[in-house]
Amino acid sequence: MAIAYRVLPPLSSYSFRRSKVCQHMESCLLSKDLDCFFVSIQKHSFDVKLSYLKPVRTLSLRCASRTTFTSVGPLGIDKDSALNNIQRSKTSFDGSKAADGEDGFERELQELFDEVKMMISMGNKSDAADLLRANYEAVKERVNAGARGMEEAALIDVIALGYMALGDLKLVGSLLGMFSEVVNSLKDDEQLLDSVLVHMGSMYSTLGKFEKSVTIYHRAIDIMEKKYGRESVFLVTPFLGMAKALGSMGKAAKAIELYHRTITILESGRGAQSEDLVIPLFGLGNLLLQEGKAKDAETPFLRILNIYTKVYGECDGRVGMAMCSLAHAQCAMGKADEAIRLYRNALQLVKDSNYMAMDDSTMEKIRIDLAELLHVVGRGKEGRELLEECLLITEKSRGKEHPSSVTHLINLATSHLRSKNYAEAEHLLRTSLQIMAKTVGTDDQSITFPMLHLAVALYHLRRDEEAEQIALEALRIREKAFGKDSLPVAEALDCLVSIQNRLIKDDGVLLEQLKRVLRIQERELGNEREEVLETLKKIAFYLDKLGRKDEKSSLQKRLSMLRMKFKQRIRY
Q1: Name one GO molecular function term (predicted).
Q2: What is the per-residue pLDDT across 161-201, written as a single tens digit (0 to 9) for each?
Q3: How far apart are the C-alpha atoms of 510 and 280, rounded to whole Å?
């Protein structure tokens, strides 16, 4: 079982978090896991349903027997998919019911989709894959024979969504080639084309092909605006998908404009206090935070809090979730005390309402973020108590040596390092190493993170030789795993140099190691990063010790320019 850990910061700056404070809410709306504070948006009334509006001719589908299954479990499909967003069905948006006598083809598509969902929810992934493969072979044969109709496009759509549910994104990517070929041959007046295009845009976005995603969404939106008008609620799903793709491409201004347009449409159709507004407000708030506009982000998060309070009451867990997103905005604005108050109230509210289990990953992330914030403002003891709570909850629910406890052990150890409790940090880190050695082995790159933290603790305990050996072993593992000129290697070298400073008399050796660190940082990070500035300071120190004044003089000019740039960034 592989365990992924974050990259260790330089020796001089400790980090105990799994994600940077005030940054884990910055991921775009409806990302792979959604955001930890808003699992609640899945509880809206939007049905997971293939929303094809008009009937088409029947295409024979290969479906498994339905007599085995009695209920439909949740589909494990990517949350970015249009199927898990606001659905463009008549029932969802305008309150009217779909036409009676649902067409046989559409019904068969839905049955195939439900069949795949059921198999996946029951753990029968191989059966689901077989069913999808059979239908894929059937439609591939028709396409190769020259068929390029709406039936083929709709079936490929369902098959691709099924493979997304299975997590087979590689196969989805290959399917999209045939999908595009069929869709590009269709005219815009095809009855189901807009729905298929929305799904297709979502798939491209999931695969990280955002430009193609935006192009597909554009076509879907053009078709829908002609059919339903520019203010139709049917536009909400493609607007949200396109806004997410634009945000991922760095085109924030256009994405923000789309979010605002979506909000306006929903306000007009559902009212200013409708729960349906939560999703676009959440996406808008996250994007504004990502763009460094914390003050602007506060407004959508406040609206979400007010909506949930009105709809569910002050004591509902969803209100607690909304408090957390607002706390994130407050934190980004520098209002640490208000953010801490909101986080604490949110944790208590979620706990009292039994909205989610205490060992839920969402609760864990909230506690870790709050713990980090407390450390940042100098309230390390309170932060450490939260980290200890995370560890105790994990050990109680999963066992004392479960791999998931390693993150909490390292976080807690780093907190003790910051408080100069080096002996306790050593104990915790050795415990984490023992667990990881059993889980991933002693040569896996992930084990180097607690190793380097342990080297730091031993260094402060004046056990330099032991610290050096551990740092050297971590460096060896990283060089093998990432390559000798990789950023993880530079970080291990930086740590090693700090330790060897008390062991090696030859300052020239240490200087060469630091120059190697600098070369890697400049190539991987650029010439104007804070990490580069810190390494340049260390190089200047050793040049001074070695009496190499000419080299130091030229380096000092670069240092002065970098310091000036960083001061200007802080000012603005």
Answers
A1: transferase activity
A2: 999 999 999 999 989 999 999 999 999 999 889 999 999 99
A3: 53
CA distances, 444 to each of 14, 18, 436, 482 (Å): 22, 19, 9, 11
449 contacts 6 by C-beta, under 8 angstroms: yes
C-beta neighbour count of 175 within 10 angstroms? 24
| Residue 59 pLDDT exceeds 70 | no
Q: Identify whether the C-beta of residue 337 lies closer than 8 Å to the C-beta of residue 365.
A: no
| CB-based contact 128:120 (threshold 8 Å) | yes
Q: Record the tokens describing residue 394, joined without a space.
A: 């994990």
The structure tokens listed for 409 are 């052990």
Instruction: Write the CA distances from 282 to 6, 31, 211, 334, 481, integer angstroms.
Output: 26, 12, 23, 20, 38
**Which of 409, 339, 349, 344 shows the shortest CA–CA distance to 376?**
339
48/75 Cα distance (integer angstroms): 8
Longest dimension (CA), the chain: 90
CB 213 within 8 A of CB 241: yes
**Separation of CA 466 from chain center:** 37
User: Which residue, chain included where needed, has tokens 């560890």?
Assistant: 391
Compute the distance between CA of residue 380 and CA of residue 166 in angstroms, rounded to an integer: 43
> Could you tell me if 312 and 294 are in contact, meaning their C-beta atoms sit under 8 angstroms apart?
no
The answer to whether 405 and 420 are in contact (CB under 8 A) is no
Is-contact 158 110, C-beta < 8 A?
A: no
Q: What is the pLDDT of residues 253-308, one digit of tens each?
A: 999 999 999 999 999 999 999 999 999 999 999 999 999 999 999 999 999 999 99
> pLDDT of 30-50, one tens digit each?
233 323 222 222 222 222 233
**CA-based nearest residue to 15, from 363, 418, 298:** 418
Give the pLDDT of residue 550: 83
Distance between CA atoms of 112 and 97, rounded to whole angstroms? 22
The per-residue pLDDT for 103 is 65
Q: What's the CA gap between 468 and 458, in Å, rounded?
A: 9
CB neighbour burial string for 34-71, b if at least 16 within 10 angstroms, e if fewer: bbbbbbbbeeeebebebbbbebbeebebbebeeeebee
Helix (H, G, I), strand (E, B) or coil at 21: coil
